[in-house]
Amino acid sequence: MSLVAVLYDQIVGVVTNDGGGRPSLEYDAAWRAGVRSLPLSLSLPLRHLRHATPAVAAYLWGLLPDNDLVLDRWARRFGTTAGSVMGLLAHVGEDCAGAVRFVREERLATLPNEGEGQVKWLSEADVAQRLRELRADASLGRRPDDEGQFSLAGAQAKTALFERAGRWGLPSGRMPTTHILKPPLSGLDGHVENEHFCLSLAHAVGLPTASSTVASFEDERAIAVQRFDRVSSDGGILRVHQEDACQALGVLPSRKYQNEGGPGPFDIVTLIREHSREADADVTTFVDALAFNWLIAGTDAHAKNYSLLLGAGGRVRLAPLYDLASALPYSSIDRRKAKLAMRIGGKYRLHEIGARQWEKLASELHLDAATLRERLLDLSQRTSVAAYDVLQKAHSDGLDHPILEQLASTVAQRASDCARQFGA
Known about the structure:
This protein has helices at 29-33, 55-61, 68-78, 85-92, 124-136, 191-204, 245-248, 265-275, 279-296, 355-364, 369-396, 403-420, and strands spanning 2-7, 10-17, 23-27, 50-51, 100-104, 119-122, 159-164, 167-171, 179-182, 212-217, 220-226, 230-233, 236-239, 242-244, 307-311, 315-318, 339-344, 347-349. The protein is an alpha+beta fold and 424 residues long.
C-alpha cells in the first residue's frame, strides 16, 4: 500500500508499506528543491530523501486518535486492522490536524484543491444528536454515511465542524473545519466548563491559547475550540501545517507521558532552541505553560498537548496552548497523589514541587534561576487575581455550572500558596 502526502495542493512525497507493514517515506524531488518547501515533520528533515520507521510511524500514528476503542471500530468499518496505520489513514487521512493530506493514488486526479468543497448545514437538533452519539461512541466523530474524511489525534471524544455566523455545518471536499467540539467527559462533571475556564485563565495571564466557548445545542453542550491550525484569508479558510511535540521528536503517541519514556521539558526546550525562529520567546512561553499547569494542577499536559507551527523556509514557532484543564475541583482525585505529566526538578507529584524543584529545572534548561523565580512569582500572583475575573466573565456569558465557583476559589488559593514559595 502507498499513500501520497499532499501539502498546499502540492505532492510532498509518498509513504509506502514494506512487506512487514512498516511505513517509509520518500520525499518528492521537486518538493525538496522548492524555495518554500518544508518537511512533513521536524523528525523527517528534507535533507534526507528517504525516511524509514520508526520516525515515519510515530508521525503517522500521531495523526490518529489515541484511543484503542476508536481505532478498533474504525478498522471494522473500513475493513482493515487497528494496527495498520496506513490502512486507517487510507480512509481518514484527507482531513487531519494541520495541513497535510494522505491520499490514495487513485484519488489524486479527483482531489479537490485547497478550500474547495461544500458545507452541509446542520440544525441545532442535528448537532445535539451528533453530540449524544459521540458521548455514547467516541468513534462517531463522523458518521459512516457522512461525506469527506476526518481524523483528530488525542484520547478524548471529539468532532470537528465548520462554523460561520453562528451556523454549524459539516464540510466535505477540501473545505476545512474551523472548530473542534468536545462533549462532557464521563466521570468528570463540568469538564467542558473546566477546560473553557482554564483556557480563558491562561489567556488572561498572557499565555497564547486557542479561543474557546461553551456551546449549547438543545440539552447537549460542548466546548467549541477554534482551531489554531486554520486561518482566514481572502480565499476562505486555509489549513496551517503543524505537528505535536511527540511527532516532532519521533515519539509514538503511546509514550506521550514522560514517565512512560516520552518527552520532558529538556527535550521540548532543546527542540525549540534547535528549530524556532524566536527560540527565546518560545522557550519562555513553554516554561510559563509548565508553570501554569503546575498552578492549576493541569495533570494531563503531556507532549502531545504542545505543538509547533511549521512554515515555509524553516519558520517554526510554538503553537498556542490547548487542552488545558484542572484536577483541583474533583474530590475523586487525591491531591497528595496527583502528578504532572512532565517532571519538574526531578519530581512529578504536585505536593513535592516547589521553589527548589523549579531552580533545579532552571539549571537543567540552562535558564537564569533568579529570572525564573521572578516570572513564577509574577505568574502565580496574576493567576490568583485573574481567576475571579474569569469567573465573572463566565457568569456574564451565561455559564452557571457549580464547578466554575470551585475552580476560581481553588485555583486562586493554590496560586497564592505557590506565590508564597517565591517570597510573596
